Amino acid sequence: MRKLLLGACIVMPATIFAQGFQVNLQGQKQIGMAGAGVGTAMDGATLFFNPGAMAMLKDNEINLGVSPLMFKSAFLQDGSTTVENNKNEIAPPFEAYAVWGPKSGKYKIGIGAYTPFGGLVNWGDQWSGRYALISLDLKAIYIQPTVSVKLTDNISLGAGFVYNHGEVELKKAVPISQSNGQDSKATLKGTGEGYGWNAGVYFKTLSGITIGVTHRSKVVTKLKGGDAIFEFPASIPAATLPTKFDSELPLPATTGIGFGFYPSPKTTLALDVNWIHWSVYKNLSFDYDNNTRVADTKSPRNYSDGANIKLGVNQQQTEKLALRAGVGYAFTPVKDGYVTPEAPDANRFIASAGLGYNVSKKFVVDLSFLYEAVHERKQTNLETGLSGTFKTHVYIPGIGLSYKF
Length: 405
What we know:
Elements: H1 2-10, H2 28-31, H3 46-49, E1 61-66, E2 69-77, E3 83-85, E4 90-91, E5 94-100, E6 107-122, E7 135-150, E8 155-177, E9 183-204, E10 210-216, E11 219-231, E12 244-251, E13 254-264, E14 267-276, E15 283-288, E16 297-300, E17 306-316, E18 321-331, E19 348-358, E20 363-380, E21 387-404
Antiparallel strand pairs: 1-5, 1-21, 2-3, 2-4, 2-21, 5-6, 6-7, 7-8, 8-9, 9-10, 9-11, 10-13, 11-12, 12-15, 13-14, 14-17, 15-16, 17-18, 18-19, 19-20, 20-21
Keywords: Cell outer membrane, Membrane, Signal, Transmembrane, Transmembrane beta strand
Protein name: Long-chain fatty acid transporter
Family: Belongs to the OmpP1/FadL family.
């Protein structure tokens, strides 16, 4: 019985990779346009949004950017009048791209590093949901070498290999009192890796509209030999507790179609529709190296697929200054009963703004700001029993530098 109790208490939250952790921050120009970029060829971030469009870029360039993400979430437990808030933490999603090819040539090659999944949340060790989660620090860093070829002046295609380096650290309280009266704690931390691909095709129609179609594959991240750390009372011998664990986490595939409209030489409108294949996420398992007190776990998740739609505009005000804005809406894949404090997910509204300034013919500075209003959601988690209402806002300023050569 004690073994089953410990096993139930130590199961870590399993909705690590919900919509809330799909970080759509892969290019500063595109962020300013709500994240739309599949059907346009704007800069080196095209390597991520649609490798097929990369060969259409006029310049060779290097792009660097960072988007400090501030996640603000509030929770009201059922039966309580006290609203609890997560602690202030800032996650730093980044992007870096380098694209090269003969000027006016038939191909371009490039490499990118970016963070499409990640999260940083800390609720503290005294809040009402501490037995579900204290904190989460998650990073998924993709590295993508890419080749793009122009078949004609109006059609190009491209593909890239994806390597993922993942890092995760999760902490939660366990309702077993230590000698000082404080709750016991459990921590899982480790690194993993996975592999995938990104491919796309890009068309310029006779009417001037551009169309992009892209698919980013599922990446199964395998974590081997992660550290299982327990702060338990001496009455529970350390030799009976796990010290290592293995796990396997699927990062979903995404299929997107995008359109570029050009009502004037200075105006670009971008429309993207993306389908995220979250239905691959059926369960999450933890395999511990010692099952004396803690049984291996297999937690059902049964996600549905998710989707989003984004509309953005880029207006070249002057030779040096471009202004951007965008709106979007994302549909959550997290079903009722599976919402958790590390990803208090729901459908969300997206709004953005940005600007670009040409410091010179070679140097460009881009600024962006993206806001996400996650709908209020009242839930009872089927696994932990945590019951209450979450309300979340996300604020993301960003800055990028580009060098053209």
